[in-house]
Amino acid sequence: MIKESTNIFGIRAIIEAIESGSTMNKVYLQKGLRGDLFYQLDKLIKEKKIATSMVPVEKLDRLSKNNNHQGAVAQISPIEFYDLETLIETTLESNKIPLFLLLDQLSDVRNFGAIIRTAECTGVNGIIIQKSGSAPVNAETIKTSAGAAFKIPICKVDHIKDALFLLQASEIKTVAATEKTEDSVFDIDFNQPMAIVMGSEHRGVNPSILKMVDYKAKLPLLGEIESLNVSVACGAFLYETVRQRTL
């Protein structure tokens, strides 16, 4: 059974949930909300870098099923996230060639779920997402992943750059999937510790990230359409990795 994302409502209840360590997908706040308790919540949200949206009261009414939400509704994630530094250490100690996947602000939950499923099937050691601007892990994500979201470690970081620094410091090479290169995915040596960076559906990998990675690679496109769906492209990169590592 898929565990649905839990909605909690009421400013004080959300404050207590955050302080207790609950993992939040997102906090919805009523536009124009004021008051001491709201400012306390707002400060806590900023300290923990929790994704937020300012919304009209009608949306909060729907999310809380017209209960007394006090202008705030939060969605608690159905999974627990892993600490990236610890995950890297345990992966390096496993004597297997590490393979990580970074998603640079991927926003569509179905693409996210499909990528999680493929990543689990191809032996990815962990998926890394950014705390803000990324698709949430919710019931739809888990359903699309066919439950793989419960089987593969997922890490949240303040910024993808933070993860890149940590991976590269651990001698894990990084490659970004991008059309802004002449190098093919088939020219990259994946038979080494590697982290693959996939970009968002509309703008691809952020230019600042492209400057940081060790390699850039693209998939050959033989038709008239200029790009692939990100989950399909991700699958191609991952299975090229599998092909090279199982030869």
Which keywords apply here?
4-stranded mixed sheet, alpha/beta
Question: What can you tell me about this protein's structure?
Answer:
- With about 250 residues, the chain is of the alpha/beta class.
- The chain has nine helices and ten strands.
- The chain has helices at about 10-20, 35-50, 55-65, 85-95, 110-120, 140-145, 160-170, 205-210, 230-245; strands spanning about 5-10, 25-30, 50-55, 70-75, 100-105, 125-130, 155, 175, 195-200, 215.
- It has a six-stranded parallel β-sheet, sandwiched between helices.
- Strand 5 (about 100-105), helix 5 (about 110-120) and strand 6 form a beta-alpha-beta unit.
- Helix 1 (about 10-20) runs parallel beside helix 2 (about 35-50) and helix 5 (about 110-120) runs parallel beside helix 9.
- The longest helix has 16 residues, at about 230-245.
- The chain is elongated.
- The model has no long low-confidence stretch (mean pLDDT about 90).
Query: Tally the helices: what do you get?
Result: 9
Please outline the major beta sheet: 6 strands, parallel
The amount of beta strand, in percent, is 15-25%
Rg, alpha carbons: 19 Å
Mean pLDDT: 91
Helix content range: 25-40%
Total strand count, please? 10
| H/E element order | EHEHEHEHEHEHEHEEHEH
Ends distance: 38 Å
Query: Structural class from helices and strands?
Result: alpha/beta
Biggest β-sheet: strands ordered side by side in the sheet? 7-6-5-9-8-10
Query: Regions with pLDDT < 50 over 5+ consecutive residues?
Result: none
Question: Which term fits the overall shape?
Answer: elongated
